Amino acid sequence: MLIINSACARNERLVSYFDTEAGPVIQVMVGAVNVSAIDTVWQEKVTPPSGFNIRRTSHVSEQIRLSRGEEMARFNLGSTVIMLLPENITWNQDLQAGQKVLLGQSLGRF
């Protein structure tokens, strides 16, 4: 799995690139002004408390592996996650626009 984090201030953004068996997956976590921080399971707090610098880190050498349904990251107060997935995904047909997605809930399968 290839993981590269990029975080910057203002509205915090954490972009992670995953090289998976099904193809590339990109997770973009967008934290609003008062979110306070974004944590990942591989680096803990990755967003700075203040500042306007873009920081880039690479965790390729760590050979990070996540199991299906395992937590990847969290907001300390909540915000938005954008997932970019390969075309070969079969979406969970029970999902509806505007519906909250819970931790561990299936979005679909490769």
Overview of the molecule:
By secondary structure, the chain is mainly β. The chain has one domain. 0% of the residues lie in helices and 40% in strands. The chain has no helices and ten strands. It has strands at 4-8, 12-20, 23-31, 38-40, 44-45, 55-58, 73-75, 80-84, 90-91, 108-109. The strands form three sheets. The chain has a five-stranded antiparallel β-sheet with strand order 6-1-2-3-8, with no helix packed on it. It has a three-stranded antiparallel β-sheet with strand order 5-4-7, with no helix packed on it. The two termini are 16 Å apart. The mean pLDDT is 75.
Q: What is the average of the pLDDT values?
A: 75
Shape designation: globular
- The number of helical runs is 0
Total strand segments = 10
Briefly characterize the structure:
With 110 residues, this protein is mainly β. Helix content is 0%, strand content 40%.
Topology:
Layout (H helix, E strand, L loop, with lengths): L3 E5 L3 E9 L2 E9 L6 E3 L3 E2 L9 E4 L14 E3 L4 E5 L5 E2 L16 E2 L1
Antiparallel strand pairs: 1-2, 1-6, 2-3, 3-8, 4-5, 4-7, 9-10
